[in-house]
Amino acid sequence: MKIQNLSDPSFRQYGRVVTGYDFSDLLEAVSQTPRPLDEVIYVASAQELEERPAAGFLKKNVYGGLPVQIGYCNGNNRRLNALEYHRSSEVDIAADDLILLLGRQQDIREDFSYDTALVEAFFVPAGTAVEVYATTLHYAPCSAGTEGFRCIIVLPYETNWDLTEEPVREGEGILMTARNKWLIAHEDAAIEGAFNGLKGKNINLDEDA
User: Fold this and answer.
1) 0.85 exceeded by the pTM?
2) Residue 15: its pLDDT value, please?
């Protein structure tokens, strides 16, 4: 699979690089969080990140004053496994070099399936902040090297939290797995309770390099 750069024109439909702020305070804080090599962990809201000055910049300048949560996704991963989307942009700040596998919500079929052959891969250098647009399909980052990755995840407050009531399980509702989270999984990933709508190969960067 071709690994593209954020400067390539093909990335513009998926997101943008966030500039104009030094995120070193957040990067220093996330460097103290675990980075397992045998799994991927996700923490939606981490106080040690949210109390940093960068939180104010993100709330005001990226999310237009909306309350935000700042967490992290760390670990080691080389597979696609699933794609999700939100009704809002997500900001990913790479503490280590990583790769994002991205697609377009517009390419989801009427039966809520999605062809994995449409997925594109982008290299995100350490220290780079990327806004992933609301219509961009994404999931856990992939490792660019052998040491795994740490990635700061910024979203509107309560995104990815447990549902407080069961959604109507018809139409798009079959994809809801958490608040502000719609997920399409690949059957190979065996994600409990997820809709297995990814068709084609479960992308593996080790096999598709």
Assistant:
1) yes
2) 98
